[in-house]
Amino acid sequence: MTEYRNNARLFEGIDWLTILIYVALTIIGFLSILSTKYVEDDPNPFAFSHEYMKQIMWIGISWIMGFVILLMRSSIWHKYAFHAYGFALILILMTFFIGKQINGARAWIVVGPLRIQPMEIMKIAIGLTIAKVMSAYNFSIERPKDIMHIGCLIALPVLLAILQNDTGSGLVLFSLLFMLYREGLNNWICIPLIFMAVLFLSSFMLTQTTLLLSLVAVLYISMAMMNKIWKIAIRAFAATLLTSIIIFCLGLFINLSYYYSLLITCILSILVIVYYAFRTNMKNLYILAAIFTMSIVMIHTSNDLLDRMFTHQKERIVSFLGLKSDPRADYNVIQSKIAIGSGGLFGKGYMQGTQTRYGFVPERHTDFIFCSIGEEFGLCGATVVLLLLFGLIYKMLKMADKQRDTFGRVYCCSVASILLFHTMINVGMTIGLVPVMGIPLPFVSYGGSSMMTMTILVFIAFNMDASTRLSISSDRDKMIF
User: Which SS3 state, helix, strand or coil, does residue 437 take?
Assistant: First the structure.
């Protein structure tokens, strides 16, 4: 059977407004890159050694890929979802053997003039794979075994990204938590997951003992809120603290610190929680126990993780938390904020930006391209770009709501989650609200891997939406006749 749509109804059902938003963003991205990298006295301005010429090539390839995807039958994405995940995983593993280290991360495979980032391919694969798993007949968002299955699918590439020292790309996959929440994930499971991220940042400021005590408190509060067992949770918390003190007193003879006394108590507490969950059939406690275990491992290994980080990465986080003022670590952010602030309401005009045109912002065409838009087009121009991006995200969510099957709904929502994370983090970086972590602005930042990945992500959703619209139209016609 052919994998292409019927020629008679080739472009029926396509949401052209959404595609127009996508095209507008890619054109804005090209013009911004041209503005930041164009040199007036260059004798050969159309040479493909220039970033803006490379970007127009990537945009052209991406548009062609998007056109081809629109011609495909929507059933093909479900059919080859697991194959895509396996392929992306193999490529990521290959980076440990033949990968090239760029900007401190061994996350690239270089083939001649091409540089491939397998983690970008994983963003497509993970969306399709999770959608296929969640669309299975026997899947339930409330069943701990199924949640653990989804968690493992996400955790594996995240772990590999951390080992590559490409933490930013790995964190993008955690944006799928929004999709899981929208699909019905228990609200109180989200709290300890978010707390794990807070734990990592807190490890720069607090001792391991303080972090572990905070984690124990969050554990029992979450347990009480999820199951409305406040009395049992309070007693368990008190018993945990008392047991840790007793172990500490007994361990004085062998110089056992309170941290290790508390750590032993936490391990015992996990066993008790699992036993209690088994006796009372409170299945959500299994998930809570698993998250608690991962958090303990994170706290215990936080020092080793920090040692693995490059100096500039630690300096950025420490500076972001306000623990140390370092103009070198903050240089990009400081110059970015100057550029955006100098743009005022309407900007300095196209190709008139001083901060971005003259190289004061080193990554002005990639991760910090938003500041060049803010400088040249001001608050109004930056707002237009954000409205386009959030408009695209909104359309993705509307597409998700209109899908007739779980697979399409979950996938479209996953795409919206990834786009939202990219946009929020990238803009947050440029104005100093989040640490710098190398997350590009979708369809705007320079880069072939990012451009093609984001194009494939959204055009698969466009393809699914078109098929749904055709199906609804066909059903309507049958009702009329």
Answer: coil
